[in-house]
Specification:
The complex is a heterodimer.
Chain A (H helix, E strand, L loop, with lengths): L1 E6 L9 H9 L6 E4 L7 E8 L9 H4 L2 E8 L2 E2 L2 E2 L2 H19 L2
Parallel strand pairs in A: 1-2, 1-3, 3-4
Antiparallel strand pairs in A: 4-5, 5-6
Chain B lengths: L5 H7 L6 E4 L2 E3 L9 H12 L7 H4 E3 L6 E3 L8 H18 L6 H21 L3 H15 L3 E4 L22 E5 L3 E12 L6 E4 L14 E6 L5 E5 L7 H4 L15 E12 L3 E4 L5 H37 L6 H26 L2 E2 L5 E2 L2 H26 L9 H5 L3 H8 L8 H16 L2 H7 L4 H11 L2 H12 L5 H7 L3 H14 L1
Parallel strand pairs in B: 1-10, 5-8
Antiparallel strand pairs in B: 1-2, 3-4, 6-7, 7-11, 8-9, 9-12, 10-11, 13-14
Helix pairs in contact in B: 1-2, 4-8, 4-9, 5-6, 5-8, 8-9, 8-10, 8-13, 9-10, 10-13, 10-14, 10-15
The chains are: A alpha/beta, B alpha+beta.
Chain lengths: 104, 506
């Protein structure tokens, strides 16, 4: 699966976003990972990871970079709030769920 | 859809017959009661400016429910731009009234309940949000002023609501019926309540399972059967009945005009109930409302600062000391503090975020920092206004003496300033400073939207101290610094040794 990861820039984050992404990436197989994508061809999955709930990079031009999107807003994901370890676990779960549904 | 003018707003209050008491007498007409007039004028400004082309961009918004143009005081924030415009509106109105214009509390209640009722429905499948949206549309269509009523009397603060000797010191449900609820208790210090169309209640604190009956939010017309409002006093309030000159701000008064609202077995239909028993959401509503409300103060109080800074500068000029370095420095210091608070207001709005309901809310850490600064800086810039104005603000003779055929000439002669500044104008300005810098506006700035302690609690809760410790550990060399290692291309211990070696060679 072609996965893109977009960081917000982490000016004053509630979480250690690189650590969350690092832990999650250990669970990946042959996926193609791109950080902070700029190309016009959207990735199969775009993980937007923001340091806080402001989610300043969650903009239309960024969202266009992924066919499917997972958004992390600080400690929040899918409307719920978690500690960093649980957040990582949820990210892993969500990616696997998308993988299964999309057949990648 | 009607956006009322200031005059239409005042006239609309005639249709309501709230039970209001003031100075031991029942007020027959809120509109005609002289003591209330300045408060009505200040609130009317929130209506009037919405009709002025020069203010419409800030004072009006597009309803997300109907797509129609509405007064921003009835709007649910749809973007961070809306949040920014809201604080701009607060500063504008503070500048134009020099006092509290009261209507923001209801605006914040509307937004707080919009956010929280959505979350309650999501969990329980209830209909609160749907009911609230219908109510909101009614408010928007009729351009109503709502009094946001949060503070309960609280009784013994060491006890939770259900533990109180007198169960009514927190507003509570005493009966649940098929068509609605019956409530009893009171809300205290409620700004603008005598001259509002609606009263919107919210819980005042976090609630536990035993406090279910106290976990309520609803709206009722101000003249609903069973509601009594007892108007509160303010510093020098009766001066406005005696003398235009001595009142200081005769047109718009001092603070918002607060009242104790007693609910004596008041019936509320279910369509007007927006929370009833969902105790785990009480804190969310309190914090969401308080966040919005605290974010306002860097707007409205800074608008007041603009006025008092102008008054101080004018007085200095009328005394011929406007070029003195201490005056310039003092005015600069006042501006610095005011603009610091304004920066916080803008920052917490720009850093706002979308809630699951779709409405936007402010950055809570920055909003609480803003309000905590207001609790200090308002006292400080008002102290400096007193410093520039001098003791005359508390020693001036009355208007009656000024108008006296014999005494007046002495006052005119001996309180004269620089040529070109009539004594009467100087008295006006001194009285304005007295009104703003000595009276009830100060504790209002401290206690309104919550005490300083409430802000400190929120700041503590919203701050990640552990992360700051981690940052310090990395800089101190206790924790690994991967970026440093990338810069130096060596493991950190060796890189540090290298730096140490370089220094030694020097």
């Amino acid at each position: 699966m072609r996965i893109a990861v977009k960081y917000c820039g982490n000016c004053n984050p509630e979480i250690d976003a690189p650590r969350v992404i690092g832990q999650w990436m250990k669970t990946l197989g042959d996926d193609e990972i791109t950080f902070n994508p700029e190309g016009k061809k959207p990735a199969d999955l775009l993980v937007i990871i923001c340091g806080c709930r402001k989610a300043c990079v969650y903009r239309p031009e960024i969202r266009a970079m992924g066919k499917q999107i997972i958004l992390i807003k600080g400690k929040r994901m899918e409307g719920l709030s978690f500690g960093e370890a649980e957040l990582t676990r949820r990210l892993i779960q969500s990616v696997e769920s998308i993988r299964e549904k999309s057949g990648h | 859809m009607t956006m009322k003018t200031g005059q239409q707003y005042i006239e609309s209050l005639r249709k309501l017959k709230p039970k209001v008491y003031c100075f031991g007498e029942k007020v027959e007409s809120v509109v005609d009661y002289l003591l209330f007039k300045p408060h009505l004028h200040a609130a009317a400004m929130t209506y009037e400016l919405a009709h002025k082309p020069e203010f419409q961009e800030i004072m009006t918004a597009t309803s997300h429910l109907t797509g129609e143009r509405i007064n921003r005081f009835t709007h649910i924030h749809q973007s961070t731009e809306d949040l920014v415009k809201k604080v701009r509106m607060m500063r504008l109105l503070g500048q134009r009234t020099g006092t509290c214009f009261q209507r923001c509390v209801g605006l914040d209640a509307l937004n707080g309940i919009y956010v929280t009722s959505y979350d309650i429905d999501k969990k329980y499948g209830s209909k609160y949000h749907e009911h609230f949206k219908a109510f909101l549309q009614y408010v928007q269509q009729n351009d109503l002023m709502s009094a946001g009523a949060m503070s309960d009397p609280k009784g013994d603060r060491s006890l939770r609501p259900h533990e109180q000797d007198d169960p009514d010191v927190y507003l509570r449900v005493v009966e649940r019926r098929s068509d609605g609820i019956v409530v009893r208790g009171a809300k205290a210090h409620i700004t603008g309540s005598i001259n509002s169309h609606e009263i919107i209640t919210m819980p005042t604190r976090a609630m536990g399972p035993e406090d279910r009956d106290y976990t309520i939010s609803f709206s009722v017309p101000v003249d609903t059967e069973g509601i009594t409002l007892i108007f509160g006093r303010q510093t020098n309030d009766t001066r406005r009945l005696e003398s235009e000159l001595d009142a200081g701000n005769p047109k718009y008064g001092i603070v918002g005009g607060e009242a104790l609202i007693v609910f004596d077995d008041v019936f509320v239909p279910w369509e007007r109930v927006f929370m009833c028993g969902e105790h785990e959401f009480a804190l969310e509503l309190v914090e969401t409302f308080a966040g919005y409300h605290r974010s306002n103060y860097g707007g409205c109080k800074v608008g007041l600062a603009d006025v008092v800074i102008g008054a101080s500068a004018w007085i200095a000029e009328s005394n011929g000391i406007e070029r003195a370095s201490n005056i310039r420095n003092t005015l600069t210091e006042m501006v610095n503090m005011a603009e610091t608070c304004w920066s916080c207001a803008l920052a917490c709005s720009y850093e706002g975020h979308q809630t699951p309901s779709g409405a936007y809310t402010i950055n809570p850490l920055l909003a609480n920092v803003e309000k905590l600064n207001i609790t200090r800086f308002t006292y400080e810039w008002m102290r400096l206004a007193q410093d520039i104005a001098g003791g005359i603000i508390i020693t001036l003779p009355s208007e009656k003496d000024y108008e006296h055929p014999e005494m007046g000439k002495y006052i005119d002669k001996y309180f004269k300033g620089k040529k070109g500044f009539p004594t009467k104008d100087r008295i006006r300005m001194y009285r304005l400073i007295e009104n703003m810098a000595v009276g009830a506006g100060l504790p209002e700035a401290m206690q309104g939207a919550g005490s300083p302690t409430a802000m400190r609690i929120m700041i503590g809760r919203e701050t990640n101290i552990d992360r700051k410790k981690e940052l310090a550990k990395v800089i101190a060399g206790i924790r690994e610094d991967p970026y440093f290692q990338d810069i130096t291309q060596v493991k950190e211990d060796k890189a540090k040794a290298k730096v140490k070696g370089k220094n030694n060679r020097k």
